[in-house]
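Lab notebook, entry 633. We have the chain sequence and a SMILES string for guanosine-5'-triphosphate, and the next step in the workflow is to get a structural model of the bound complex before anyone spends time on docking refinements. Request logged below.

Task: model protein plus guanosine-5'-triphosphate, output structure tokens.
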Amino acid sequence: MYVIGTAGHVDHGKSTLVEALTGIDPDRLREEQEREMTIDLGFAWVTLPSGREISIVDVPGHEDFVRNMLAGVGGVDGALLVVAADESVMPQTREHLDVLDLMRVPRGLVALNKIDAVEEPDWADLVEEEVRELLEGTTLEGSPILRVSGVTGQGIPELAAALDAMLDDAPLPSNVERPRLPVDRVFTISGFGTIVTGTLGGGTLAVGDTVAIVPGNLTARVRGMQIHKTSVERAEPGTRLAVNLAGVDRDEIERGQVLCRPGWLRATRLLDAHLEVLGDHRWPIKHNMALEFFAGTARTPARVRILDGDAVTPGGSGWVQLRLRDPVAVQRGDRYVVRMPSPSVTLGGGQVLDAHPRRRHRRHDVEVLDRLAALVDGEPEAVMHHEAGRSLVVSSAAAIRESGLVASEAASALTRLASEDDVVVLDGDADALAEGKDLAISAAARWQDLLARMREALEAFHKANPVRAGMSLEELRNRAHVPTAFWDAVIEGATREGLIAATGSVVALAEHEVGLTEAQQRSVDEAMAAVRAEPFAPPSVSELVDRLGADLLDYLVDGGKLVKLSPSIVLAAEAYDDAEARVVAYLEEHGQVTLGETRDLLDTSRRYAQALLEHMDRVRVTKRVGDARVLRG
Ligand SMILES: Nc1nc2c(ncn2[C@@H]2O[C@H](COP(=O)(O)OP(=O)(O)OP(=O)(O)O)[C@@H](O)[C@H]2O)c(=O)[nH]1
Ligand SMILES: [Mg+2]
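Result returned:
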């Protein structure tokens, strides 16, 4: 199904034409009927001669209500621009056309209305010429112009036929399997509860679906749906929909929020965008200017940071960051409009390029500008490259979800990037990505940065601790600022790169070897000689630390030259082997051994004998039974 939006100056007959076409008066509010003026959006529908059913969103033309008009144009497939033939082009004719163009509404028709009120046919020709010129350079350039009267009905059948012809060539509203419905109305119906309406885009919605309401931390269930007052179980993109929600109150929802699948859209207060400034008046958009931002059905005050200059001049374009006062749910590729709050004028608009930039960008940063330029066309590879680089390491599934692309298209772009090494797969490869596995990925440049950071930390550690085998994995993770969730994948990737070797909880540069200076070697040799001189009563740990330093002692223990029996007692490795063999032999002969027997066997002190037996218990050679030890078997 398709949605058509009206546009045009106040009183030019938009609502009258909608009623003439559909039989439905779109001015539903009492105030609208009393004032004979549209204030807020109105809705109608009709079956065209071809049998095609369309929805119409009728917008107000008065300059005070442009904000409501803006809430109505998002998601429309075509425009019906209404120009009263007796008045011709007026300010909101221009402003609405500007909005349609900024929102890239792809097609339209012009109704030259009130043709009954024009007596001079030449006058109508002049008006038509003026309109034709106005459309030049916009998405509506070359649109058919039809002479009609909403009051006498003249030209209405032709208008219906022209709408049909226009939609014959229109592609179906796109389905990327991510339904979203920007809310334009909320109300309650007694017995049903909360109802929201909006134009569904991006995918299908069905009764029973769970939906998130963004911004806001709400989820709800779709209890029922209506299209044009008829209940449906399922709705396709491009339909005007009323959704009955279970699980939320009317006061919790307002125009501007978006229904979507849980876990997809995230609200944002900062976004990167391309900005076009309208050329028809003399207002430039200056750096740091206060604006009103409109996207979907949402609006919020905003400030603009111009990244490539101090102002964007009328008719020009630039790269900007928009800081929004209130969060909105937008995604890459969405169109937006900005207006000046006072005087109230539409100034420009453009395309959202990144709904979640990592930070405030420095201005005039060539790298940032290049990246934004690459995103304008929405090429899947540029988009996925950007998503992969969003942080140090990201999950491929999250990158695909956030891209705003059709999932299969995003996945194959990512696979291509991985096979060309523009994106690195840390815990797998391009083939595994192609199979749809959720893997840890990193943009090549960021991965190189991370490797460099890890190298730097390890080099510093090895330099400061030349005799240590390596650094603790956890310490390296902290220094490299890698989130825990991705750390195993990073270690896997860095090992595969040949940068590091990890053993147990210790990690070292792959090429790291412990090397001693001559002086260190000498004191190690002397200490080992002293330890060996009294094999079962060697110097204590604290004496050895005094002689060698703690690092060299660790080096001897790590390297297996010394066996640590307790925090204060070490034995030379061969003395330990000898002691263990003697105790085991004794046990094999006698079945059990006491502390006293061990002391006598080795001709040592009780303290050493006890440390030895406890160590043998710990390494599971022996176990304690009462006062004695037996072999563990
Ligand atoms: N003579 C004549 N009058 C018309 C025609 N269409 C609308 N009108 C009158 O023009 C006035 C405004 O019509 P609306 O349909 O309310 O105009 P609108 O464009 O919807 O106005 P807003 O929604 O407030 O912007 C009404 O008094 C209509 O009766 C027409 O074709 N011929
Ligand atoms: Mg109206």
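Notes for the group: Residues 8, 10-16, 36-38, 60-62, 113-114, 116-117, 149-151 surround guanosine-5'-triphosphate (ligand 1) (CB under 6 Å). Worth checking against the assay data. The CA atoms of residues 232 and 415 lie 39 Å apart.
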